[in-house]
């Protein structure tokens, strides 16, 4: 069996809006109340998927969850007198950020030789805590081959779990056994630390990982305070490389030492604060990037266009590309609609190292399927949503119809 890393991008849903529901997400808060453009957002995401399909030869996707969430609306007893944030929660399209969909441990790392996935409970935020049942339902279909995959239930809500956005995997190659990195936060600051240490440890046990091949590291509280609500806002891992800001971890040197103890091949690319400040790294999402191994073995970094527009960030990127380091190419992409709501290229994807032939083929992209997806989006996704539109029957009917059209086009009727 040949394992490869597949990026499963979340298709941006037709209810994409800027309600500013995510405490600690500075971009989300700063655009609260702005009109959103779901059609443009979804087409930007589709273009990113096409680009990576052409680069890597394989690309997956996950579908928008059903919105508005009628069950949540009923649970909240919405009657028009509630706070706007409560009214907006059932409409959230935040499942598009599939880095939070689950934590994934590939078969070479697990005791039973299967790929394990645990959907994140996302309990820190109401608008995200509603996601996991529908996420699990989708994972059960896409990774339903029980000879190769195990899809677990979420960890108990006592422990907040935000999925792969706080998880990385070091390995010599995606098909070889690796070392898994779990990054957690601690509460007590201005913003909530969403990843609980015990959630990470529980996931590692559920996945049957070798305790000697797991590393648990605390995120820098100052980074959380600055707006790095997930670790993937300040660092990203690919194979032997850790691309990280100098202020990502509570004990930066200790983190490197702990990883090297079990993965001596670690290669750190650390961006000094003097080159790129923590605030500028978070504003541009330099580290919320896809670090990819290209077919020739080199590595490329897929970053938001905002990185190219920042003098300090782009100067660093140019110097990095000119060096003899492991990252040889930096490729900006336009995901501005997602960025305005607090998610960059890395937020939009869940990495699964597996044999593509073991995945339900309906969730794997090809050019014909990309054409179908873009056609449905162009024809049915709302062009614009204003916050005042949330809750209207007209918008609800439009959003439900648009999603159903996509399910029909992709013949994934089980999710209707």
Task: Explain the layout of strands and helices.
Elements: E1 4-10, H1 26-30, H2 38-56, E2 60-62, H3 70-75, H4 84-88, E3 102-105, E4 115-119, H5 126-129, H6 132-142, E5 149-151, E6 167-171, E7 178-184, H7 197-206, E8 214-218, H8 221-226, E9 235-238, E10 241-245, H9 252-262, E11 267-271, H10 278-284, E12 290-293, E13 299-304, H11 305-308, H12 311-322, E14 327-333, H13 336-340, E15 349-354, H14 367-380, H15 393-410
Helix pairs in contact: 2-14, 14-15
Structure report:
The chain is α/β, with parallel strands linked by helices and 416 residues long. The chain has a single domain (4-415), classed as Succinylarginine dihydrolase (L-arginine/glycine Amidinotransferase, Chain A, 5-stranded Propeller). It is built from 15 helices and 15 strands. The chain has helices at residues 26-30, 38-56, 70-75, 84-88, 126-129, 132-142, 197-206, 221-226, 252-262, 278-284, 305-308, 311-322, 336-340, 367-380, 393-410, and strands spanning 4-10, 60-62, 102-105, 115-119, 149-151, 167-171, 178-184, 214-218, 235-238, 241-245, 267-271, 290-293, 299-304, 327-333, 349-354. A three-stranded mixed β-sheet has the order 2-1-15, with no helix packed on it. A three-stranded mixed β-sheet has the order 3-4-5. A three-stranded mixed β-sheet has the order 6-7-8, sandwiched between helices. Helix 2 (38-56) packs antiparallel against helix 14 (367-380) and helix 14 packs antiparallel against helix 15 (393-410). The longest helix is centred in the N-terminal third of the chain and has 19 residues, at 38-56.
């Amino acid at each position: 069996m040949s394992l490869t890393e597949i990026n499963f991008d979340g298709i941006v849903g037709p209810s994409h809006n800027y309600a500013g529901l995510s405490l600690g997400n500075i971009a989300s808060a700063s655009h609260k109340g702005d009109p959103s453009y779901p059609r443009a957002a979804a087409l930007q995401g589709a273009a990113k998927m096409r680009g990576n399909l052409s680069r890597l030869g394989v690309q997956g996707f996950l579908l928008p969850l059903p919105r508005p969430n009628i069950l949540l609306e009923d649970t909240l007893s919405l009657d028009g007198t509630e706070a706007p944030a409560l009214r907006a929660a059932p409409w959230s399209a935040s499942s598009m950020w599939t880095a939070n969909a689950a934590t994934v441990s590939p078969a070479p790392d697990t005791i039973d030789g299967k790929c394990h996935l645990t959907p994140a409970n996302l309990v820190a935020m109401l608008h995200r805590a509603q996601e996991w049942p529908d996420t699990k339902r989708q994972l059960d279909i896409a990774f339903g081959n029980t000879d190769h995959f195990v899809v677990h239930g979420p960890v108990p809500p006592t422990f907040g779990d935000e999925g792969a956005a706080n998880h990385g995997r070091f390995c010599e190659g995606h098909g070889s056994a690796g070392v898994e990195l779990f990054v957690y936060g601690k509460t007590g600051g201005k913003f909530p630390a969403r990843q609980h240490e015990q959630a990470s440890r529980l996931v590692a046990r559920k996945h049957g990982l070798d305790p000697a091949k797991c590393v648990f590291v605390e995120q820098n509280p100052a980074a959380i305070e600055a707006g790095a609500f997930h670790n993937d806002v300040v660092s990203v891992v690919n194979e032997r490389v850790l691309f990280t800001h100098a202020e990502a971890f509570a004990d930066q040197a200790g983190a490197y030492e702990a990883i090297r103890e079990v993965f001596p091949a670690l290669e750190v690319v650390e961006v000094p604060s003097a080159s790129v400040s923590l605030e500028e790294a978070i504003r541009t999402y330099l580290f919320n990037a896809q670090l990819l191994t290209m077919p020739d073995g080199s590595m490329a970094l897929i970053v938001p266009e905002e990185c190219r527009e920042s003098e300090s960030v782009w100067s660093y990127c140019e110097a990095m590309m000119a060096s003899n380091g492991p990252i040889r190419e930096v490729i900006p992409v336009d995901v501005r609609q997602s960025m305005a709501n607090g998610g960059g290229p890395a937020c939009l994807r869940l990495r699964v190292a597996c044999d593509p032939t073991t995945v339900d083929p309906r969730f794997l992209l090809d050019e014909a399927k990309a054409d179908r997806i873009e056609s449905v989006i162009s024809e049915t996704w709302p062009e614009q949503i204003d916050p005042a539109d949330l809750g209207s029957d007209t918008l609800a009917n439009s959003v439900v119809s648009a999603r159903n059209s996509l399910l029909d086009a992709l013949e994934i009727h089980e999710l209707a």
